[in-house]
Amino acid sequence: MAPLLQLKHVVKRFGGLLATNDVSFDVEEGEVVFIIGPNGAGKTTLFNLISGYVTADSGEILYQGQNIVGLKPYQTTRLGIGRTFQIVKPLPSLTVRENVMLGSFLHARSRAEAGKKADEVLGFLGLDRRADQLASGLPLAQRKLLEVARALATGAKLLLLDEVMAGLNPTESAEVVTLLRKLKDFGVTAVGGVEHIMRVVMALASRVVVMDQGGKLAEGSPQAVVHDPRVVEAYLGSKYQKGGAPP
Ligand SMILES: Nc1ncnc2c1ncn2[C@@H]1O[C@H](COP(=O)(O)OP(=O)(O)OP(=O)(O)O)[C@@H](O)[C@H]1O
Ligand SMILES: [Mg+2]
């Protein structure tokens, strides 16, 4: 069977900056693929390209065999590509439940049906206690989960998680790791993640893609990648010198 997602020689420039330089990789059904690399390496740009927030200059992005380059975000969402944002941005004047319903309205035929789907997702993520609270009052860990909830409520099959663990303490991130392991029970068939916290990457990833300066530096199993001298030099070495925990 063809991979769920295929990037083929994808190129994206912002002015003179080559943010994505001939990047190719696949995500198969059932896989959890993490993208790692230094700040500015082009990780978020890859998610923006896949989800249609920016458009590739050249190359192909195939989802279920269909070239999705040029599709708008609402169209990729409809196809089953869900994502979270590195900078979380719930609508602050809506409740947690209403924010999630913005996702579930994509497929629901009524307000009641959208509410039911939202409640299912909120229960799964342990946010049900917060459902009627304004999103603006949520602590960071819960705001991050709200992003995941909104994406799940759209019925995402491929879920792209951009630094959902950033800013969480170790206890909170361990709880989120446990939740993410159960995403498959919730209709998600593949996950793409971006994280700087290697403990999380090692715990969740079936494969790791390493980005550096817009290009793919390496790709492989988590164990192979963290022992790759090029990866240590470009990313992990400097990260550990800054006090990051070893994997
Ligand atoms: N819409 C845009 N317009 C212009 N430049 C952009 C745009 N989006 C990203 N860039 C630039 O592209 C490069 C890659 O950015 P990107 O956000 O993909 O990095 P990243 O790997 O996600 O970094 P971080 O780990 O800090 O989140 C950066 O130099 C960034 O400034
Ligand atoms: Mg980023």
Descriptive report:
- By secondary structure, this protein is an alpha/beta fold.
- The chain has one domain (5-241): P-loop containing nucleotide triphosphate hydrolases (Rossmann fold), CATH 3.40.50.300.
- It is built from 9 helices and 10 strands.
- The chain has helices spanning 43-51, 73-79, 96-104, 111-124, 140-153, 170-181, 198-204, 222-226, 229-241; strands at 5-14, 17-27, 32-36, 58-63, 66-67, 81-83, 158-162, 190-194, 207-212, 215-220.
- Helix 3 crosses helix 4 (111-124) and helix 4 crosses helix 5 (140-153).
- The longest helix is centred in the middle third of the chain and has 14 residues, at 111-124.
- The chain is globular, with a radius of gyration of 18 Å.
- It starts with a strand and ends in a 6-residue tail after the last helix.
- 45% of the residues are buried.
- It binds adenosine-5'-triphosphate and magnesium ion (MG).
- Residues 43-44, 86 line the site of magnesium ion (MG).
Please, how many helices?
9
The value of Rg in angstroms is: 18 Å
What is the name of the CATH topology? Rossmann fold
Structural domain tally: 1
Distance between the termini: 33 Å
Described by strand count, sense and barrel closure, the largest sheet is: 6 strands, mixed
Name the CATH homologous superfamily: P-loop containing nucleotide triphosphate hydrolases
Low-confidence stretches: none
Main sheet: which strands, in order across?
6-7-8-3-9-10
What secondary-structure arrangement, pairings included, does this model have?
Layout: E1 5-14, E2 17-27, E3 32-36, H1 43-51, E4 58-63, E5 66-67, H2 73-79, E6 81-83, H3 96-104, H4 111-124, H5 140-153, E7 158-162, H6 170-181, E8 190-194, H7 198-204, E9 207-212, E10 215-220, H8 222-226, H9 229-241
Parallel strand pairs: 3-8, 3-9, 6-7, 7-8
Antiparallel strand pairs: 1-2, 1-4, 4-5, 9-10
Helix pairs in contact: 3-4, 3-5, 4-5
The structure holds adenosine-5'-triphosphate and magnesium ion.
